[in-house]
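Justification of computing resources. Each target in the renewal requires a structure prediction run like the one illustrated here; the chain below, 189 residues long, is used simply to show the kind of job we budget for.
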Amino acid sequence: MAQTPRPIEITELAALKALAQPRRQRILQQLTLGGPATAAILARGLGLNTGATSYHLRELARYGFVEDAAGQSPRGERWWRAVPADRRFPPRSRQTPQTRPVLDELNRHAYAADLELFERLQRASTTDDFAYSRSELTITEAELGAFFEEYIALLNRYKRTPDQAPPGARTVHTRLMAFPAPPNPEDAS
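Resulting structure tokens:
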């Protein structure tokens, strides 16, 4: 099994802003899904300018989200890879007036990208490997925290590097969204 990364909470406003930039999110997603790539490969695949892509890669590297993937090319090209991490963000109660809108924007772009990827891959799929569930739980805030940590532990139990994966294994994207239901108007009376 792959080594489980320790949780890292990102609180620095500059790092959050770097991550919230939509092109950087696309670049990071592509490196995470497709593995190491050069700025030119990323630019072609994402329909971006190579110079701008290089700039965005350097900004992502500045905050530790990507790094050089040394040894990828004998021609001296600069290859980049996503840095594996258990990245977390401050809960709403600890977000500052400056970080809250940045995190809201980051989440808006990330959820939209996740939904687009899910819909595109589901339309193209002919297999039964699309599992999703909708459910409701009645739990306390502390129980939700425990549930989340158990979910992360379960994910980490199944994480492996490509060379550790059994035959037939493929990358599967998982997402967990947990949010409170709106108040029942009848409860207010």
